[in-house]
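We treat protein structure as text, and this decision shapes the records that our systems exchange. We quote a single record here, exactly as it is kept in our systems:
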Amino acid sequence: MEKITKANSSKFNKELKKFILNELKGTEIDNTINECFDFHRFEVDTIVGKMTIAIEGEQGYVYSVFCRFENVGEAKFKFPCNSYTGKYNLHFSPIPIKEAIEVAKEHLKICKG
């Protein structure tokens, strides 16, 4: 499996950030969790409450979007998230960049309601 190029990684992150902020009306939150990790973090209101979204600064071998629902009790009945932690992570392996962006947007739109 080939590593995702920096250009595609940058495009994926830029498109999702714009989508989260403009379409989902999300807010950017503190991105300084740990100096070792480069993440862009957001918070979005969904049909089951708040969801945190984190996108790696540089994608590796798969496109990933890390999500976690705050209200696990409700989320676990509406989404295929972890029923204990509320994690709802999206991973897309070698697919074209355009498709990865569209699939990620669709998953996030469903959460928004």
In short: The chain is about 35% helix and 25% strand.
